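User: Run a structure prediction on this.
Assistant: Running it now.
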Amino acid sequence: MQKIIFLFEQKSKVSGYYYYQAADYGPFSWQLASDLEFLKSRGLMMERLRPRRDGGDRYVLKITDKGSDLVKRLVADSRWKKVLEAIEKLKIDYNGKDLTTLLREVYQDYPAYAVRSKANLY
C-alpha cells in the first residue's frame, strides 16, 4: 500500500500529504503506516496475508462492511466526490500489481528512493 499511495501522490494533484523516506523496499511514510493502522483498529479495513505464486507472501488490504458503509455515506456528500474519484483511479492503475512491478516503477521514476533498497529486481 505504501508504494501505491506514493505513486498516486506523485502522479496526481493529491500530492504532498505524506512525507516519504527511502527505506528497504522503496518509499516509506510513518504517517501513512499510522493512518492505515488507525483504519484497521477502527474496523474500517482489514489486512490478510496471502501466498504468492513464487512461494512468498503478500499483504492484502480490504475494506470491511463498516468501511464500506462509511464510503457510501461519503459518496452522498458532494465534498468527497473528487477524493472518491481519485481512489477509483488508484484502484484501476495499481490494484493487483505485485511489489516487484511497483518497485520497478518507483525506482525508474524516482531513483532517490532506491538508495537503501534490499530488493533484488534484476
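Helices lie at 2-11, 30-41, 65-75, 81-94, 99-109.
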